[in-house]
Amino acid sequence: MTEYRRYAIYDPGPEALADFGAEWLGWDTRRGCETRGLGGALADSPRRYGFHATIKAPFRLAPGCSPLALVAAFERVCAGLAPVAAQPGLQLRRIAGVLALVFDPQPVAVGALAAAVVRGLDGFRAPLTPEERARRRPELLTAAQRALLDRWGYPWVMEEFRYHMTLTGALSSDAELGARQRLAPLLAGLLPCPHPISALALMGEDGAGRFHLLHHADLRG
Question: CA torsion sign, 102 to 56 to 117 to 96?
Fold first, then answer.
């Protein structure tokens, strides 16, 4: 199995929504190819990551851990987790300056699922280097977020986790209005309620910084 620079766990979303996301962003992580890129410059920032909700943020493999062992552990974790039917469904919202699909409010079961994955696979995560920690701008985080960063390698986990599927980069108010007007008709009919989380995806980041689907596992708990 090919080794990648970093690994991550995604929720790819229901198939129809995932298909749209790939076409909008311009990169299909499942097929490892470029798409039409309907979002154009709006999607420049999130393009290389592909359409997804991050469940476990990108991490380097710990010394002594192999990609094959990670796949096996990922399968075991997913086998013990039950699918989630999240209500209310996803809604288009502005968060941290970008447009994304989020839950409002976020169901407790969604946060619990993400926390279980983070805990279950943490042994495969290499510790942050000082440079990696500095890139997270710890001086701008709360004390609780810094503690999460140091414990789990990422500040937006556990009680700070918020499920989101990013569709744009940072937008001005005027650009946001135009993006909403473009996205609204394209998303019509693609946001089921409840929103199903029935499988997760193990992803790998290649040398160019683009993410690829490595393994897909159903939630079978």
Answer: negative
* Residue 149, domain CATH: 3.90.1140.10
Whole-number Å distance between alpha carbons of 55 and 11: 7
Residue with tokens 């995604």: 10
Q: Is residue 1 part of a domain?
A: no
Q: Which two tokens stand for residue 120?
A: 């279950």
What backbone phi and psi angles, to 5 degrees, belong to 67? -55, -40
pLDDT digits (tens, 9 = 90+) for 48-59: 999 999 999 999
- Is residue 201 in some structural domain? yes
Distance of CA 130 to the CA centre of its chain: 24
Domain extent at residue 78? 6-218
- Mean pLDDT score across all residues of the chain: 96
Query: What is the C-alpha to C-alpha distance for residues 8 and 37, in angstroms, rounded to an integer?
Result: 23
What is the tally of structural domains in the chain?
Answer: 1
H-only helix segments in 99-167: 108-121, 130-135, 143-152
Residues of the chain scoring pLDDT < 70: 1
Instruction: Write the pLDDT tens digit of every residue in 82-124.
Output: 999 999 999 999 999 999 999 999 999 999 999 999 999 999 9
Compute the distance between CA of residue 76 and CA of residue 53 in angstroms, rounded to an integer. 21
The predicted structure's pLDDT at residue 3: 80
Q: How far apart are CA 81 and CA 103, in angstroms?
A: 20
